[in-house]
Specification:
Layout (H helix, E strand, L loop, with lengths): L1 H14 L1 H19 L2 H8 L1 H15 L8 H9 L5 H9 L5 H27 L1
Helix pairs in contact: 5-6
């Protein structure tokens, strides 16, 4: 719900040419002043940090799949050639996935409610 609002605000900022130019300039400054430093670049190439980053990305992308089912999901996608959507459907039918599906349905409902409230608030003005 908060993520949806943040994404909407970011999209609105990118549509405004002036704000977009400020964001681009900020990115260039970040790279020039910080990200291009040798110590930062070396730290980002460290295998331990890359491993943790990979785990964090996997955890985010597969948040709707229980940790004990993630290996099976990856096997379905990598070895069996299923699409991500097909593999998620197979995993959703596995025992123990009902709780996660219920949480996802509640989160989707809450996101729709917040989006509806935001639309109604915008229409008032």
């Amino acid at each position: 719900m908060l993520a949806v609002r943040i994404q909407a605000a970011q999209a609105a900022a990118l549509r405004d040419p002036e704000k977009r130019a400020k964001l681009v300039e900020h990115g260039h400054r970040q790279y020039r002043d910080y990200l291009s430093r040798d110590d930062v670049r070396a730290r980002n190439r460290d295998p331990e940090i890359r491993k943790r980053a990979g785990q964090a990305i996997t955890q985010t992308r597969l948040a709707d799949i229980l940790p004990e089912h993630r290996a099976e999901y990856q096997r379905l996608v990598r070895q069996k050639g299923l699409s991500a959507a097909e593999a998620r459907a197979v995993i959703a039918d596995m025992p123990g996935s009902e709780l996660r599906a219920a949480r996802r349905a509640i989160a989707d409902f809450n996101n729709r409610q917040h989006a509806r409230a935001d639309r109604e608030r915008e229409q008032l003005y």
